[in-house]
Amino acid sequence: MYNCDVGQSTTRPSGGRGARERIERAAAQLFYRNGIHATGVELVAQQANVSKRTLYQHFASKKELVDSYLRGIDARGGPPVEKRLNDTEMTARERLLAIFEMSRAEVVRGCPFHNAAVESAGSLASTDEIVRTHKLEFTRRLVAVAHEAGVADPHLLGQQLAVLFEGATAMATSLNDTAPVVHARAAAATLIDTALAAPDHFGN
Asked: Please, what is the angle between helix 112-120 and helix 62-75, to 10°?
């Protein structure tokens, strides 16, 4: 989930230093919580405590603001659940399974990149490209961790886990229920352990 402190933004001056940061913070919260199409620039400006003129001085269009929102998530290392792939305090196998461990709060709105792709429906070319790049990079990270785990075919396992993760998180969001990711975790464990037990696995 992406948490923005709304209360702080309403006490700050509308212009000057920090206006862009407030706009980005407000947009991130509103786009994720309410959806891109349901959030107008007027609401973003209001929550950021800036004028529409100031908003457009920083972002020429709503599309540009949407793209900035998604790039900002990537700049922070991706959605919280995906960051678990970088947690070196866990083994590689544990990190691959950790992305399937979500609270109810984390599945309510789901993946911001998936949501953006659905809302775009092919109408926002630059947004679609950001989403595509993110998903390919996420899959690459899964492959890298699978390789670290020492599976026989890390590319195959990474691709399988990416599809499993995408489907499970989308269904969990649709149902507003964590059950799909619970089942997906069990399936992921089976996939990982089967890959580790493959005949050409050398245990490294």
From this structure: 160
